[in-house]
Amino acid sequence: MKYLVTATALMFGTVCFANDIPALYQGADLKLGEKLIAQHECSACHQKKVGGDGSAIYQPAGKVNTLGALRGMVEACDQQLNIGLFPEEVNSVSAVLNRDHYRFK
Ligand code: HEC
Fold first, then answer.
1. Integer Cα distance of 54 and 27 in angstroms
2. Which residues form the signal peptide (predicted)?
3. Cα 77 to middle of ligand 1, angstroms
4. φ and ψ at 63, to 5 degrees?
């Protein structure tokens, strides 16, 4: 019973987050963001620095502490790596990172 409640809460939470694209990330497409993150091997490189699955690089309590700062960091990585993302793509990537790691409102 307890398990059922937890599972339902988890499912509900996921659904809520899945539709929760901040207004600042206008035009974001979560599926596209996920694809871009995989395609550009963001995690592979972060893994080299922090180990594990690489997600420890994302620190909500660090210097990236707002939606705007998160997008700025994605833009900086994009420029440094010469990936050439469009603004909607930067928003999409930011929205996925926010949904999975930062959870800024
Ligand atoms: C060539 C290696 C490399 C690749 C590829 C890379 N990153 Fe990074 N990224 C880093 C390093 C190193 C840091 C830590 C920088 C620091 O702490 O100042 C970082 C930090 C970040 C941060 C800030 C984390 C935080 O909370 O402080 C974000 C967001 C980020 N990267 C997003 C991305 C995204 C999105 C991609 C793929 C499009 C990507 N990175 C690809 C090396 C990389």
1. 27
2. 1-18
3. 6
4. -75, -20
Write down the residue that tokens 């091997």 correspond to.
41
Closest ligand 1 atom to the C-alpha of 44? 5
- The whole-angstrom separation of Cα 98 and Cα 43 is 15
Q: Does residue 57 line the site of ligand 1, with CB under 6 A?
A: yes
Instruction: Determine the average pLDDT of the residues in 1-19.
Output: 52
pLDDT tens readout for residues 74-87 = 999 899 889 999 99
Question: What is d(CA 28, CA 85) in angstroms, rounded to the nearest whole number?
Answer: 13
Angle at 41 between CA 29 and CA 52, to 5 degrees: 110
CA dihedral angle for residue 52, residue 58, residue 63, residue 65, rounded to 10 degrees:
-150
> Do the Cβ atoms of 30 and 96 come closer than 8 Å?
yes
Interhelix angle for 30-39 vs 87-97, to 10°? 90
Which protein residue's CA is at the shortest distance from atom 6 of ligand 1? 42
